[in-house]
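Hello Y.,

Per our agreement to keep a running log of every chain we model this quarter, I'm adding this entry. I've kept the format consistent with earlier entries: sequence first, then predicted structure.
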Amino acid sequence: MAAQKKINLEKSLADLEALVDELESGDLPLEQAMKKFEEGIKLTRGCQAALKDAELKVQILMKSAGGEDLSDFEVEEP
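Predicted structure for the entry above:
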């Protein structure tokens, strides 16, 4: 298993939100907007990986504790 850089999920999400705000403002030149977009994609992938790792840890803990199998969490749309 390759060593993965640990990310601070909360900080990454805050950074991603700031990037989105910058991009939505429309004030960035195209080249800078493309760099920000690329940075946002990297942050998104890091967040997804961190969430997947957390989900796997929860599943392992549930199984080792003799818990029930986990079911998908569904969010109801308003």
